Every structure is written in structure tokens, then in C-alpha cells.
Amino acid sequence: EESILSAVIMLAVAVSTSTLNIRIRDQEKLRSENEKERMRGNLLRAISHDLRTPLTSIYGSSSTLISKYDALPKEQQLKLLGEIQEDSEWLIRMVENLLSVTRIDGAKVEVVKTPTVLDELIDSVLMKFSKKHPNQKVITQIPEEFVDIPMDSLLIEQVLLNLLENAVFHAKGMTELTLSVSLVGDKAVFEVADNGCGIPEDALQKIFTGSYEKSAAPVDGTRRNMGIGLSVCAAIVKAHGSDITAENRRGGGAVFRFALERGGEDDGQ
């Protein structure tokens, strides 16, 4: 009888443990879904906030050109067309960012990782960056030895490009822009650093959430892509199983940092 009783008790414990585990799993799933919804909401707010300004500018410049075409001097016409072109390029860049997010922000947040040679990744990033910003030099520091890292290389390229462009647009007074990769244990640590004006303390806390409100459009016409671009970076890095951080450097400027696992049979699931 004792053995039957202990068997019944063990069975009851097993059932209640299993029920508890299922409940915990369901709660975690719900939390994960809520987090995804929150991130999606933040992204949508950032999009509506960020896209309105260039669209309004394009509409205003084109309306002026149409209504005053014969009266406007050629220099003024070219200036307005230049502004339309600049805002259109910015919108294209944002759409590219949004496509990246929709790739990883579906029902399952996962990326398919394939071994990527570090040298080739950095070369591709620098080539794309120099096409958009031919006058901006980037100092690179990467390991001399052969390194391959499992990743979705297109998405990680997008992150590095966003971080470099972010410095161009926002790091006032910058004279040095650095892209470096160092090997720490089984990780490759990526850093994009500048020696510009740094990041305001109140912005540091919210910089990756997409909820960072820019106080006003800059007077000098620099683009306002801080919010949505960095939200995208954070989402991509998170889908790779890591986190991105930002901090101000002691000597001035800011540094953005994230780490990716090296090697191993990781399929990204």
C-alpha cells in the first residue's frame, strides 16, 4: 500500500510540476508577445514622427517650383530640387530600414545565420558607406587573422551602415570615425566610435526604443534619422541573440557596441 501511495504522490507531483511548467511557458510567451507589440508600437510612432518632416518638405518644395516656375531664378530652382532629392534619399534609406525590421519582426523573431568572413563584411560595409558619403573617412581596426562569424550578413551590414551614418548626421564636430572589431573569448565585439558632441544623457536611456523624441528639426537641415535607425539596429542585434549599447566616451564623442558569437554550429534558431 505504501508503494502505491508513494507512486500516486509522485504522479501527482509530476502532473502539478508539468502544469506549472506549461503555465510558466505560457506566461513567458505572453510576455514575449507583449514586448514585440510594444516594440512594434514604438517603431510605428517613430515612423510617423520621422517620415512626416521630409514628406512635408518635398511637398512644399515641389509646390513652390510648380507655382513660381517662371519667376524663380535658376539657382533657387536647383536649391529646391536639391532639397527634394536629399529628402527622397532619406526616405529611401528609411524604407530599407523598415524592410529589415519586417524581416525579423514577424511571428517568430529569428534569423538564418551563415558563416561570414569578417574581412568581406567590413569591405562591403565600407564600399556602400563611401558611395553615400565619399568625403567621410572611416578608420578601421580589425583582427589580422581569418575570422568567420555566423550571421545574417545583410542585416548586420545594415546595422553597421546605420551606426556609421548616425555619426555623420548627429556627431557634431566629429573629426574621427572608427569601425573596429575585436575578439574577446568566443565573441566578436563590433564598435562604431566618433569624437563628436556625444549623446545627451536623457537620450541615452531611450535611444534604441524608437520612442526618443527629437526636440526640434535641426536648423542646419541635417537628417533626423536617430530614432527609427537605432530601433532597427537594436531589433536586428536582438534577433542575433545579443544586445546593442551606447555610451559617451570619456574624451568626447560616443561609442556604439554589440557582440556576436563566433563559430559553432549555430543555425540561429
Your description of this structure?
This protein has 269 residues and is an alpha+beta fold. The chain folds into 2 domains: 2-99, Orthogonal Bundle (Helix Hairpins), CATH 1.10.287.130; 108-261, 2-Layer Sandwich (Heat Shock Protein 90), CATH 3.30.565. The chain is 55% helix and 15% strand. It has 6 helices and 7 strands. The strands form 2 sheets. Strands 2-4-5-7-6 form a 5-stranded mixed β-sheet. A two-stranded antiparallel sheet has the order 1-3. The model is unreliable at 211-226 and 265-269 (pLDDT under 50).
Question: Mind sketching the topology for me?
Answer:
Elements lengths: L1 H66 L6 H31 L9 E4 H15 L6 E3 L6 E4 L1 H18 L6 E8 L2 E8 L6 H4 L21 H14 L4 E5 L5 E8 L8
Parallel strand pairs: 2-4
Antiparallel strand pairs: 1-3, 4-5, 5-7, 6-7
Helix pairs in contact: 1-2, 1-6, 2-6, 3-4, 4-6
